[in-house]
Specification:
single chain; 231 residues; alpha/beta; TIM Barrel; 8 helices; 36% helix
């Protein structure tokens, strides 16, 4: 089936990133801080400023630390406060993920986050890639109506090494409320062939659309525009 529009999500870490990405054709932003640690919860001031600065949806990561995706009671107390703050700041959605020590998705923790999100869309982030069985983990997420995206690199460091896995996950989620959002390691040069090979309807860019391909550099609007054109 020909896919007329593939959604382009771009990571923003500053208001300037957000403006540049939106103007260059991004469909949605993932707002994070601490790119070098894989993304942590941004400040409330940054969330409010970015939501005010752009007209496209802003999804905000809620991740209290980068030690692991297994959280204790105190971590959950912090995360649920942050989820409620993201909702109050009028963001579009929450990006979150939590695992149990055995590598399964923490359903109870996810259910609490869904409740706190007050109807906001939930993206389950790359904690998904650390689960033992990706297909089984996707089935867990499909059981949550609020989970509208799962961000995944197919269990590999780069999504470009996991085309077959991504294709299988896309087929498994077909017709459901949940979109497979492919990200990590995508490049401007590889994106068109990757989308064709996997059938993904949404892609996620971080370093790949930044100046020099450097995760800590600003968004490069020309790269964003090129990806948009290729999609």
């Amino acid at each position: 089936m020909f896919q007329s529009h593939v959604l382009l999500e771009v990571i923003a870490t500053t208001v300037a990133d957000a403006r540049l990405a939106a103007r260059a054709g991004a469909d949605r932003l993932e707002l994070i801080t601490a790119m070098g640690e894989g993304g942590l919860t941004p400040s409330l001031g940054l969330i409010e400023a970015v939501v005010a600065a752009v007209d496209i949806p802003v999804n905000v990561i809620v991740r209290p630390h980068s030690r692991s995706f297994v959280y204790d009671a105190d971590d959950y107390a912090v995360m649920l406060r942050d989820v409620r703050a993201v909702a109050a700041a009028a963001a579009h959605g929450v990006v979150i993920g939590m695992l149990k020590p055995d590598g399964e998705i923490d359903r109870e923790g996810l259910a609490r986050a869904v409740d706190a999100a007050q109807g906001l869309a939930i993206t389950f982030h790359r904690a998904f890639d650390e689960t033992r069985d990706l297909r089984k983990a996707l089935d867990v997420l499909l059981g949550f109506d609020a989970v509208t995206n799962v961000l995944t690199s197919g269990g590999k460091p780069s999504v470009l090494q996991a085309e077959e896995t991504i294709r299988a996950l896309v087929q498994h989620a077909e017709g459901s409320h949940c979109t497979v959002l492919a990200g990590a390691g995508l490049t401007v040069d590889a994106v068109a062939a990757f989308v064709q090979a996997t059938g993904v309807k949404a892609v996620h860019f971080g370093s790949g659309v930044r100046v020099g391909g450097n995760g800590l550099a600003p968004v490069d609007p020309q790269r964003v525009a090129k990806v948009r054109a290729l999609l």
